[in-house]
Design a protein that fits this description.
Helices cover about 25% and strands about 25% of the residues. The protein is built from 11 helices and 19 strands. The structure holds ligand PMH.
Length: about 375
């Protein structure tokens, strides 16, 4: 049996992810840990595969958004510590403890509820989340932190391993808001009676720009995938990053359209002269959104525009001449000596690179490259 039966696939270069983790880990002072953020299926790259290679390259801890993502990694054999960054329902505490997963506590009442669920012989490891200015999850008041510490003192089933916060603007050139958050978090740390082992605040942007906010761990997502946290700070990246995600398809049909004939739903594209048109088996259900009408793709190193509306499963490309069915078409990545970057697609969509890699759906099989060879192929359908 083949790993997939369609001519569309994403290629994930795990060698690049390895190099990105290593180059960032090597910059850190001795003793500073690295969390590899593999939520959202490793930002669309594949959580398990990215987790494996990140750990190999020196990451110490994994981070995901919610409990299901953490359990999924455990079920695939990942034994490294995993932190759930988002809210875990207190009624799922015993499940988290069963799988040995660290959860985030962001309010004292959460602990009271969680205690009801936890079995007597179970322990649950916690990181306290502080809201220093993100306005999302986290304690803001000293009293809440005191209550959390007191509760844990009286309930040894709970272990406070870490305390953290998250920056809202560390990828922006103006550092005012970042500095305010940094100061607020420092103050929150001073409220603690006992300082937990792991203090962390930095995402990719702040860990690459501000050494002072390393504390003793950083949480790295986007830069591990080889992408800049923002275009604004791209020139400030202290290390080279290698993009890991590329997206490819093949010409499945090539035909000549006569002048005046149209392409796709709405007949929005009508060439004035006879024109060669190629059909590609990728569409908006794969995450190649309708808004990408008009973007260029690469064939034999040449930039060619998508014409007509993008359909659910297919779209059409304007060809310079008759080309053969089976020709490789690159939507993201290198083809010949031309490249379409994730950022180029993001700009076209008026969004950020994070969203582009996350939006390529699970219908698209992922081909993993390790040590320059295809290591495995993951197809969520078969
Ligand atoms: N820590 C937390 C709490 C996060 O939410 C994220 C990313 C990271 C670390 C990693 O950030 P980086 O990818 O910039 O390195 N979270 C999100 C988010 O919620 N929306 O976009 C990125």
């Amino acid at each position: 049996m083949e790993a997939y039966y369609r001519d569309t696939w994403a290629e994930i270069n795990l060698d690049h992810i390895y190099d990105n983790v290593k180059v960032m880990k090597d910059r850190l002072p001795e003793g500073v840990k690295m969390f590899a953020v593999v939520k959202a299926n490793g930002y669309g790259h594949g959580d398990w595969q990215v987790a494996q290679v990140a750990l190999e390259a020196g990451a110490d801890y994994l981070a995901v958004a919610f409990l299901d993502e953490a359990i999924s990694l455990r079920k695939k054999g990942i034994e490294a510590p995993i932190l759930v960054l988002g809210a875990t329902r207190p009624s799922d505490s015993s499940v988290a403890a069963y799988w040995g997963i660290t959860v985030t506590v962001f309010h004292p009442t959460w602990l009271i509820e969680a205690k009801k669920d936890l079995k007597e012989n179970q322990t649950l490891t916690l990181h306290i989340k502080c809201d220093s200015g993100m306005g999302r999850l986290g304690i803001k008041d000293r009293q809440d932190l005191v209550q959390i510490e007191e509760f844990v003192e009286d309930n040894p089933q709970f272990i406070i391993e870490g305390m953290y916060t998250h920056f809202a603007t560390s990828d922006e050139l103006d550092v005012t808001y970042y500095e305010n958050q940094y100061t607020t978090f420092q103050e929150m740390l001073s409220w603690l009676k006992i300082r937990p082992d792991i203090i962390h605040a930095s995402n990719s942007a702040s860990s690459l720009r501000f050494d002072k906010s390393h504390f003793n761990a950083i949480r790295v997502g986007i830069s591990m995938y080889g992408l800049t946290p923002s275009l604004e700070m791209e020139h400030l990246l202290p290390v080279p990053l290698k993009e890991a995600f590329s997206l490819h398809t093949k010409l499945v049909h090539v035909k000549k359209l006569k002048a005046g004939e149209s392409v796709s739903y709405g007949a929005t594209y009508t060439p004035e002269e006879d024109e060669w048109i190629g059909t590609l088996p990728i569409g908006y259900a794969d995450g190649w959104l309708r808004k990408l009408q008009g973007i260029e793709v690469l064939i034999r190193g040449e930039r060619l525009p998508l014409v007509g509306r993008i359909c659910m499963d297919q779209c059409m490309v304007k060809l310079p001449k008759r080309l053969e069915v089976g020709e490789t078409v690159t939507l993201i990545g290198w083809n010949g000596n031309q490249r379409i970057s994730v950022n180029e697609v993001a700009v076209k969509l008026n969004t950020i690179n994070y969203e582009v890699v996350c939006m390529i759906s699970s219908r698209v099989p992922r081909k993993y490259i390790r040590n320059k060879n295809v290591q495995c192929i993951h197809n969520s359908l078969l």
